[in-house]
Amino acid sequence: MNAPSHPRRSLAESPARRDAAHFINGEFTQGTSGKSYDNICPIDGSRIGAVPEAGQAEVDAAVKAARAALDGPWGKLTVVERTNMLAAVAAEINNRFDDFLEAECLDTGKPMSLASHIDIPRGAANFTMFTDVVKTVSTETFPMATPDGKGALNYALRRPRGVIAVISPWNLPLLLMTWKVGPALALGNTVVVKPSESTPLTATLLGEVMNKVGVPKGVYNVVHGFGGNSAGQFLTQHPGVNGVTFTGSTKSGEQIMLAASHGIRPVSLELGGKNPGIVFADCDMEKAIEGTMRSAFANCGQVCLGTERVYVQRPIFDEFVARLKAGAEAMKLGRPEDPATGMGPLIHETHRKKVLSYYAKAVEGGATVVTGGGVPDMPADLAGGSWVQPTIWTGLADDHPVVTEEIFGPCCHIRPFDTEEEVIHLANNTPYGLAAAVWTENVSRAHRVASKLEVGICWVNSWFLRDLRTAFGGAKASGIGREGGVHSLEFYTEMTNVCVKL
Ligand code: NAD
Ligand code: 6OD
Fold it and tell me: What class is the 22-271+478-501 domain?
């Protein structure tokens, strides 16, 4: 990883603390809507700067620029020219590592130790990874017999899909946005990005990188604003958009799918989850605790792949609960710059209210609060932040909302189980199907259980271990489609079969 090891500058003095701007046709602009809102830092409630809100006019301009770049300079580059440019984008993100890191940590409040090892390096890797795919993947060919004996030859061509709308969330802003922009550009498309209203800074900064390395104007565009009745909706409804790729909640995914149905535009949807962690008595306890600590509490529990339902086999239930409690209570909540910080705040006050409402519901439902359950005492300079305690419950019914609904906070419910069949049923008993983590040292059991879980991603004895060549996405209400490696070709290109009669 590229994380520099020198001491971190205080975020209070960071030059990343500035107004955001739309990036349209290679220019930074505040737009013409006259609307803006404050970007609030979740660490202490301070104002980072202003964010312009795009109206229809800015979205029109961005889509127009993206179309012109597609028909113009970008569409004319060779694959090698295009992928070289994207490799330069990755290199420049790494050159400006601290700028991206500070911007991301200001917007999200996440620890720099986390963002410097995951968010920013992955933001760069998402560009290099897909350049390799584009340069090496072939299409299919089928020679075909015909009644006249002369035959025919079928072969497939892939073309860029066109102008892609990228709608992204706030939990891993640069990582999740570039996870879509990387393959879209590598495959020859142009993009209009609508980052989350809560995390506008790194998408804006990426515009500087695009200009620095000479990516043609209009290839990468950013419009800021909200979802419904704002920039997000204007973009997904726009007839000039040829496909919509979205990461966010299942509820927003439904609205986006509706918007994209006008004009029959394809969607790629990476949505919410209520992911199970399954801990068998034959697990390596150290590994299971370490992995579940991360899957429940990393990024303050705001990871779509995170574990909110933990099922532990009865013989080790008490020990597991006690050790996870000890881990949660040892975690330091603090400033992103502090290397000892293990957990930051939630993204904003609205989300804190939602998470705390589940903390209250758990108590009303008769849960045993093993640890946490409220708001921590923070020093005066952090008291304005959106802090919550890491929280563990036991004792809730399987149909309680805390056990069935996505909370997206640093919390999990732990329930004992007895048999493999029982836990597979419990794990699958949800409308969601994003990810699961299985902890066992019995290799046959691992394969058997993994094959029965209704999820897009199943980790065995690990969590969030990512090989970018693999298929990523959710089953059931957790999404439509898979991205990653060659799977990204499905959404970001249109295939033509050429049938030549010989
Ligand atoms: P969200 O759905 O509220 O917002 C995501 C993005 O969609 C934002 O940019 C928002 O402005 C935009 N948006 C919302 N409604 C829209 C509409 N009607 N039209 C167009 N754009 C719209 O999600 P969030 O709160 O930012 O993120 C948290 C959610 O994202 C959780 O449910 C989490 O599980 C999910 N998520 C999923 C994955 C995955 O890979 N499956 C990854 C990260 C987050
Ligand atoms: O690693 C990825 O590619 C990815 N899309 C991660 C999603 C994390 C959800 O919060």
Answer: alpha beta
Q: Are 321 and 312 in contact (CB under 8 A)?
A: yes
The answer to whether 25 and 61 have CB atoms below 8 angstroms apart is yes
The CATH number given to 275-466 is 3.40.309.10
Q: How far is the CA of 168 from the centre of ligand 1 (A)?
A: 6
Backbone phi, psi, residue 206, to 5° = -65, -25
From the list 428, 426, 407, 405, the residue with the least C-alpha distance to 415 is 426
pLDDT digits (tens, 9 = 90+) for 160-208: 999 999 999 999 999 999 999 999 999 999 999 999 999 999 999 999 9
Q: Which ligand is nearest to the CA of 472?
A: 2
Using the mean position of ligand 1's atoms as its centre, give its distance from the Cα of residue 157 in Å.
33
Tens digit of each residue's pLDDT (9 = 90 or more) over 81-130: 999 999 999 999 999 999 999 999 999 999 999 999 999 999 999 999 99
Q: How far is CA 62 from CA 27, 80, 194, 267, in A?
A: 10, 26, 11, 20
Please list the residue range(s) of the chain that carry CATH number 3.40.605.10: 22-271+478-501
- pLDDT-derived band of residue 8, with 50, 70 and 90 as boundaries? confident
